[in-house]
Design goal:
498 residues, mainly beta, 2 domains, eight-stranded antiparallel sheet, seven-stranded antiparallel sheet, 45% strand, elongated, binds calcium ion
Length: 498
C-alpha cells in the first residue's frame, strides 16, 4: 500500500461523573426561637447538663445536645481502646515537654483511660468528640467549641486535654519516640478539662504554646463564656456503661476567649489524659491526631451533578463525533445529565435501540441497546451529595468484530460530603467480551482498578475505572479542594495497520 491507512475506532463506553458538594457557612443565623423550654445551663445554645439527650420538646431545634438530629455543627470524632492494645504514653512522658514523649501501647490507669463508650443515637461508640460552629450572641456571630469524653473508671478525678496543633505529625513528629503526634509550634493551643471532688467542681482552662512553654489564656466566667459538666446520673442514654463521672462535656465561646479559629486553618486535634491538673504531670492515654473538621451542615448549599452515556464514537477519518443515546435534557452536552441543588433527587434516562454508526450497516459500532441514566441526590440525613450514572450496552460489535460483547455495563457512583469524596464502580461488568477474536475473561471492575491486557495482533485494549469527585471543606474563607483520581470508565480499541 502506498499510503498508511489508519483506522481508529473509538470508545465503546465512557463514563464521566463530576460531583461537587458546596456547603456554605451561613454567617447570618436565625434568632433562637424558644430557649426557655430548656431549664438547664447552656453556653452557645448547647445543653451542658452531663447527658447526651435533648431535654426539651423539639422543635425548636435549639438548644442542641449531642444527639440532636441532624447535629448542626462540624464534628471531629475520636475512638480509643482500653487494655494492652491501647495507644498510650510511656512512663516519664511529661505534658509540657515533648522531648520526653514516648508513644507506645499498653494499659492506661483506669481513671485516665479514655474509652469508646459514647454512642450517639445507636452509632458505633466513640471516646470523644469536638464540634465547632458559629452561633449568634446578642446579634453577633460567635464561634463555639463543644467537646465531650468518656473514660473507663471514676476512681479518681478526670484530667482531659484537647490539643490543637498546626503541624502534620507525618512530617513534623512530636519526638523521635512519638511520631504519631504532631510537634508543637507557636500558636498551638490546649484546652484542659479537670475535675475535683468527683466532678463536683470542674475547671476548664486554655493555654497557647509560645515555642517553649504553654502560656495561660483567659476563658472568662463559667456559665457565661464556658460551662462544663460530668454525668451525675449513673445511667444516661447513649453512654454504654454505668457510673457517674464517666462522661464529660464542655462548651466554650472561642471568639471571646482564646480568639476565633480561622476556618481555613489546618489543625490536628488529639485527646490526652494527665495524671493530675499540673501541666508538668505525666501524660497517660492518647488518641490519634485527627484533622479538625470545620464542615458546616448545610444541605441547602450542596449540589450533585453527573452524566452518563452508552457510547461516544469519534472517528476523524469518517468525520464521526456522536454520543449515544442523545442528550437528555437537550441542554446536556455529554449524554444523559442530572443535577440536584439542595435536598432532593433528580433523575434522567434515555436509550436508543438497534444503534448503527454510521448508518446503514454500522461499520464502526453496532449495538442492540445503548442506554444511560443519571441520578443526583442531596441527602440531609447523611449530609452527602451523590450522583450515580449507569450505562448499558447489549449486543455490542465494534469495527466489524474487532470487539464484541453480549453486555457492557458501567456503574459509577461519586459521593461527596463536606469533607470526603469517594467513588465506586460496583455493579460494572462485561459479559462474553471478545477482542480481535480472543475471548477475554469477564471483568468486574472495582474502585480505582486498572487492568491492562495485550491482545494478539498488537491491538491494545484497556479497561480502567476511576473517579473524579470533589468535596469542600473550610468554606468560610479559602476552600480547600480534595480530589480523587478522575472518573471515567472506558473500553478503548485502537487498531493501526498498513
Ligand atoms: Ca441534655
Ligand atoms: Ca489511647
Ligand atoms: Ca484508652
Amino acid at each position: 500500500m502506498k499510503t498508511t491507512r489508519r483506522m481508529a475506532a473509538g470508545i465503546v463506553l465512557r463514563r464521566l461523573l463530576i460531583i461537587t458538594a458546596v456547603l456554605l457557612l451561613l454567617l447570618i443565623g436565625k434568632p433562637v426561637a424558644n430557649r426557655v423550654t430548656f431549664a438547664g445551663a447552656t453556653v452557645g445554645s448547647f445543653e451542658i447538663d452531663g447527658n447526651l439527650t435533648v431535654d426539651h420538646p423539639a422543635p425548636p431545634a435549639e438548644p442542641i445536645d449531642w444527639n440532636s438530629t441532624p447535629f448542626p455543627a462540624a464534628l471531629t470524632t475520636f475512638t480509643d481502646a482500653t487494655g494492652t492494645t491501647d495507644n498510650i504514653f510511656g512512663q516519664g512522658s511529661k505534658e509540657d515537654d515533648q522531648s520526653t514523649w514516648v508513644c507506645t501501647t499498653g494499659s492506661a490507669p483506669p481513671k485516665d483511660d479514655v474509652v469508646s463508650e459514647i454512642s450517639i443515637n445507636g452509632a458505633t461508640p466513640v471516646a470523644g468528640e469536638i464540634a465547632v460552629r458559629f452561633f449568634p450572641v446578642g446579634g453577633m456571630q460567635k464561634q463555639f467549641l463543644y467537646t465531650n469524653w468518656s473514660r473507663l473508671s471514676n476512681n479518681g478525678d478526670a484530667h482531659i486535654d484537647y490539643e490543637f496543633n498546626q503541624a502534620d505529625p507525618s512530617t513534623n513528629p512530636a519526638s523521635p519516640g512519638c511520631p504519631q503526634l504532631p510537634r508543637r509550634t507557636p500558636g498551638d493551643f490546649l484546652i484542659s478539662f479537670d475535675t475535683q471532688n468527683g466532678g463536683a467542681t470542674i475547671t476548664v482552662s486554655a493555654f497557647t504554646w509560645n515555642g517553649s512553654a504553654f502560656m495561660p489564656l483567659s476563658v472568662g466566667n463559667q456559665g457565661l463564656l464556658w460551662d462544663a459538666a460530668v454525668n451525675t446520673a449513673a445511667s444516661i442514654t447513649g453512654l454504654t456503661v454505668t457510673g457517674t463521672n464517666l462522661f464529660g462535656e464542655l462548651a466554650l465561646n472561642v471568639s471571646d476567649t482564646i480568639g476565633t479559629i480561622p476556618c481555613n486553618k489546618v489543625l490536628f486535634a488529639s485527646m490526652k489524659t494527665r495524671a493530675s491538673t499540673s501541666l508538668s504531670a505525666e501524660v497517660k492515654d492518647r488518641t490519634r491526631a485527627e484533622p479538625l473538621n470545620f464542615t458546616i451542615f448545610n444541605p441547602a448549599g450542596a449540589n450533585a451533578s453527573g452524566n452518563a452515556f452508552g457510547a461516544r464514537i469519534q472517528d476523524t477519518l469518517l468525520g464521526l463525533n456522536q454520543t449515544l443515546p442523545a442528550a437528555t435534557p437537550a441542554s446536556c452536552t455529554q449524554g444523559v445529565c442530572s443535577s440536584q441543588s439542595g435536598p432532593g433527587s433528580t433523575s434522567n434516562s434515555n436509550q436508543v435501540l438497534n444503534a448503527a454508526v454510521p448508518p446503514p450497516g454500522g461499520a464502526v459500532l453496532k449495538a442492540n441497546v445503548l442506554s444511560a441514566s443519571s441520578t443526583s441526590t442531596v441527602d440531609p440525613p447523611t449530609n452527602t451529595a451523590t450522583d450515580t450514572g449507569i450505562a448499558e450496552s447489549a449486543g455490542v460489535n465494534v469495527v466489524g468484530g474487532l470487539v464484541t460483547a453480549d453486555v457492557v455495563r458501567g456503574v459509577a457512583t461519586a459521593q461527596a460530603s463536606g469533607f470526603n469524596a469517594s467513588f465506586s464502580s460496583a455493579g460494572s461488568a462485561f459479559k462474553n467480551l471478545v477482542v480481535n477474536g480472543a475471548p477475554m475473561n469477564n471483568v468486574n471492575p472495582t474502585v480505582r482498578s486498572r487492568q491492562l491486557c495485550q491482545a494478539p495482533g498488537a491491538d491494545r485494549v484497556e479497561f480502567s475505572a476511576c473517579a473524579r469527585s470533589s468535596g469542600w471543606r473550610n468554606f468560610r474563607r479559602r476552600p480547600r479542594c480534595q480530589h480523587d483520581p478522575g472518573s471515567h470508565y472506558q473500553l478503548v480499541s485502537d487498531r493501526r495497520g498498513d
